Each structure stands twice: as structure tokens, then as C-alpha cells.
Amino acid sequence: MSPVVVRILRTTRAQIAFGAIAVLTGGAVLAPLIAPYDPIAQLDLENLRLAAPSMRHWLGTDDLSRDLLSRIMYGARISLAVAALSVTLSVVCGTAVGLAAGLGGKTVDALLMRLVDTALSVPRLILLIVVLAFWSQISIPLLVVVLGLTSWFDTSRLVRAEVLSLRERAFYQAAVAAGAPTARMVRLHVLPNVAGPIIVAATLGIGQMILVEAGLSFLGIGIARPTPSWGRMIAESQEVMVNAWWTAAFPGCAILVTVLAFSLLGDSLRDALDPRA
Amino acid sequence: MADVLVDARRVTRDFRSAGDIFRRPQTIRALDRVDLTVARGETVAVVGESGSGKSTLGRILLRLLDPTDGTVNFDGVDVFALKREPLRQLRRRMQIVFQDPYGSLNPRMRVGDAVGEPLEIHRLAAGADLERRVRDLFAEVGLDPSYVGRFPHELSGGQRQRVGIARALAVAPDFVVLDEPVSALDVSVQAQVLNLLADLRDRRSLTYLFIAHDLAVVKHLANRVVVLYLGQVMEQGPVAPLYDAPLHPYTSALLDAVPTPDPDATREQTTLRGDIASYAGVGCVFAPRCMHQKKDDRCFSERPALRPFAEQRMAACHYADDPAKE
């Protein structure tokens, strides 16, 4: 294993985060093989509605007699895939815009940053609701693209700020004095030095994105039914959760654990990527 | 004078602070019509306090910064008229060593790669040849060649500064700007690095512009000294007479600030009071802090011209006495 990975795994915090993410990802990837039931099958509307957690249904069932554990495992596939892909898209866009603003000169910088300011002044959820209102059916690729393209603004600012401070550093000036062309400057002197903050922001961003996706599903503008999604599982449990706490508690726990795990991982990465550590 | 390598004329640089709704943008003149020539093989020291414009001058000479006004000629070529490719060619011939040995090296680049980078950029070496030349450069600046694979944070300040020097020398430049190369180092290490710089100059017949904030450091290395204050030249001349009998009261003050190794020695001090301030635009820039006995109203109303004295010296003071005439 590379020294960085070893260094990251040195702390208990990182081990817990890694473990949680491994379990979540494993459960999501292997869901078709290990999930005890079909996540959308209504098992027995007569006898199994809102069954409490038991040996047969570890996390209980919902009011359509569907197995909650299976639904959470399948829901993880959606949540994790959408979050990971949209964060990737967002990081690529944000980095490109941030580099352009930081290196492109005053006019380019001013134009791009005013654009970002404008975008940031619109509340994220409102923006998403408005954009998603154009489609009647929301597919996974559509959701990824919309989430990715509406979340790079912060990253672009982060990258721009890092680039501007790098440009003042003596080693940057030394490379300019050596006659390094722009492409080389970006590849060797800029990207390696902004990679750390970007990776940390992306990791923390995955947790955020899971919350946003859950929020959208909760509001009924997520992935089309009947694909299970953590946010909508909570939404659907609203009327029954007083009598059947498990219908809201377990999907909520799934969100909590996932967001927390990525958050802890992000913090660990930040510490581990510091070359002086 | 001998063959002129660097010739800067009336170099002026303004910095504008960004204004906003509440503050007007302010213009600060970092350099005010500075003339500077450096002959081939010569070491010229530029001395002044923080804010005197000395680093700005060094950066302008290398076109790391654009002047507001004025020209810079390097070996007869107007540096600021060059297009991309000829500029890249010229950059090979002029290099810089920075003050801060922490900031001057990319923390994510192995020091061997940092030294080899200028060679790669100018396609002077590649592969095994590049590796060999980097190791030779390490040896030349007194570093163990086995350090090539290390990262900057694994080296001491003095070692990092040697890496910075090796990187500057990699492309065999004619002219090197040394921007306070020893200011951040321990005194014992300072002497080693100064000796190294002197050796390299003799061995490679380099031309130096040595930027420093005190006169002690440059005494043994420089041929000529230029004293800057608030972006204006106060005095310039060959080292020996300038140290023995400074013409300008600011030079005297800087010399008095040099610590004496003998704790019992009592010395007359013309200590500078206050900080470097802004220039009102009329009179002598140094007048508010000047301790000269003859200081009078003229100092506050008329800007003294930089005028010539014996032994190729110049000073900008109304009341500077030419020691050679007395």
C-alpha cells in the first residue's frame, strides 16, 4: 500500500470511517446477492404491514409490507452512486473554472467570479426544484448532471483562492523565472498543491450530496418510483412513524452514518495529505 | 565602466490598493525613477529597509513584475519588448534565489526534480544525463547528491537555500538576483551560504544583484552598493568608501545599525526613529527621519537630486559633503 493510504489509516477516526464506508458500499454493490427480499415486493399486505424488527425482518417492514433492510441496501446503491458521480462532475467543473479564474487574468477572473456569486445567491434547493421541474420523470443520469452542475460553485472559489495564493509563493515565481509554460505550471506546481483541498472538499461534498438527494426525494422530486431511496423512505413513513418508529429511524440512521463517515474520512484525508505530517 | 550587462533606467512602479465603496484606491509608489547599471562580473548590493522597494526592483529586472514606467535592458535587449519565445530564451540567462527557503520550493516536488526543472523546460538535458547534471549541481552547492529524492520539508533551512541556489544555477545563467538569500538563516549558516555564493561567482564568473536589508551581510561580497529608501536611491558607490565615509545620513544610520561583536565597545549611534513611512511628494523622502545636523526647511521643500561625488559615488542629500574635497 502506498504510504499515504497507510498514513490515513493510522487513526481510529479514519478506521471507523473507512469501515463504515466499506460496509455501506459492500451492501450497496452486493445488494442483489445478499439482500434478504426484493426491495419493491409487497410481501404480505394482510399480515406483514408495519411489522416490527424481528429475526425474519431485521429492520421491520413498511406500510406496504416491504422489507426495510432490503430497501435500505438498494437505496444505498442510488444514494452512493448519485453522490459519487455528481461530486466527481462538480469537482471537475469547479476545478476547471477555479483554474481559469485564478490564472486567466483580471477580466476572466472578475467575470467568472461574478457569475459564481450570482449562482451562489440562489438557494440550492430552490435552484434544484426549478431546474428539475422541467422534467416529468427524473432518471439517475439526469439527477447526476443536475446535481453536479449546480454544486461546483464553492469548489471553484476554493480552487481560485488556492491558485491565487500559490501564485504569490516563491517557488511559483521561480518556475516562471525558469520559463515554465502554463500547462507545465498547472500540472506540476498548481494541481499537486490544490489536490489536497480538492479531495477533502469532494469527500465532505459526498456527504452533503447524499443529504441533498435525500432532501429532494423527501420532497418527491427525486428518482422516479418505485426505486427505493432513503429520502423518500422517510417521506413515506411520515404518517405511520408514530406507531412504527423503525420506518423512519433506520433510513435516517443510514443517512446519518453515511454522512458522518464521509465527513470523518474528509477530516482524516485533510490531516494525512499534509506533507509535513 | 566595463561591459554593462543590466541597465535599468528610470524604473518606476506603483502599487494600487483595491478600493471599494468605502475607501478610495490608494497608489503607493514602490520605486521612483531608479537608475541601475550592473556591469558584467560585478556584484551590486541593493540595500534598504522593508518597504524600500528593493525586492520590487529585483523582480522587475527579471520581468517577474511589470514596471509602471521605465526600461530594463539586459545585454542590450529591451526585456519588456520581448515576445514569448525570445523571453523564454532570455530567462535562461537570468535567475533568482529567494529569501524564504520554505516558500521557494514546491512542497510536493522532490528537490532533485526542482533543480532539474529549468533544465527540462529549456530542453537542455533529459533522462540519465539530467539525473547526472542534477547530482553534479547538488555537489557543487555542497549538498549530498543522495538528497535528490527528498522533499523540501525533509531538509534544513540552509540545505533548502542550497537547493534554491542549485536550481538558479542549473541553466548556467549570466545574472542572478539574490533576494535576501541569507536573511532567513541562522548566523552560522549565513556565513557558509555567503562563502558558497562567493565561490560560485568566481568559479562561474557570475554577475549578482544582491538584495539585503543590512549592510553587514553584503560587505564582503559586493563591489558596489546602492542604498534605497522609499523607492528612491539615497546613495550609491563602491563598497570601501561607502562603508568608510557614508555620504548620506541614511547610509550612516544603516551602518550604525550593524551590530558590533565587542560588547564593551561604546559607539556613537544615530539610531533611526520611527518606521519607514509614506512620502508626501515634496522635499527629501528621508527628511522626516533624518538626524543630519544641517537639516532645515529646504529638506522639506526641495527634493535633493542624486548628484555625483568623487570615486564614482552618488548621493541624494543637500548637505552631503564630499570627503575627497576636504
Write the layout of secondary structure elements.
The complex is a heterodimer of chains A (277) and B (326).
Chain A: H1 3-8, H2 12-29, H3 31-34, H4 68-103, H5 106-120, H6 124-132, H7 140-149, H8 153-168, H9 170-177, H10 182-218, H11 230-236, H12 246-272
Helix pairs in contact in A: 2-4, 2-12, 4-5, 4-7, 4-8, 4-10, 4-12, 5-8, 8-10, 10-11, 10-12, 11-12
Chain B: E1 4-16, E2 27-39, E3 43-47, H1 54-61, E4 69-74, E5 77-78, H2 84-91, E6 94-97, H3 111-121, H4 127-140, H5 157-169, E7 175-179, H6 187-204, E8 207-212, H7 215-218, E9 224-229, E10 232-238, H8 239-244, H9 249-256, H10 297-301, E11 307-309, E12 313-315
Parallel strand pairs in B: 3-8, 3-9, 6-7, 7-8
Antiparallel strand pairs in B: 1-2, 1-4, 4-5, 9-10, 10-12, 11-12
Helix pairs in contact in B: 3-4, 3-5, 4-5, 5-6
* Percentage of β-strand residues of chain A: under 5%
Low-confidence stretches of chain B at least 5 residues in length (pLDDT < 50)? Answer: none
Cα radius of gyration of chain A in angstroms: 22 Å
The fraction of residues assigned to DSSP E strands of chain B is 15-25%
Uncertain stretches of 5 or more adjacent residues of chain A: none
Radius of gyration over C-alpha positions of chain B, nearest whole angstrom? 21 Å
CATH top level assignment of the largest domain in chain B: Alpha Beta
* Name of the CATH architecture of the largest domain in chain B: 3-Layer(aba) Sandwich
Biggest interface, and residues per chain? A-B, 19 and 31 residues
Straight-line distance between termini of chain A = 18 Å
State the share of residues found in helices of chain A, binned by percent.
55-70%
Give the CATH H-level superfamily of the largest domain in chain B: P-loop containing nucleotide triphosphate hydrolases
> Number of helix segments of chain A?
12
Q: How many distinct folded domains of chain A?
A: 1
Number of helices of chain B: 10
**Largest beta-sheet characterization of chain B:** 8 strands, mixed
Large-scale geometry of chain B: globular
CATH topology of chain A: MetI-like fold
Which quaternary structure do these chains form? Answer: heterodimer
Strand and helix order of chain B: EEEHEEHEHHHEHEHEEHHHEE
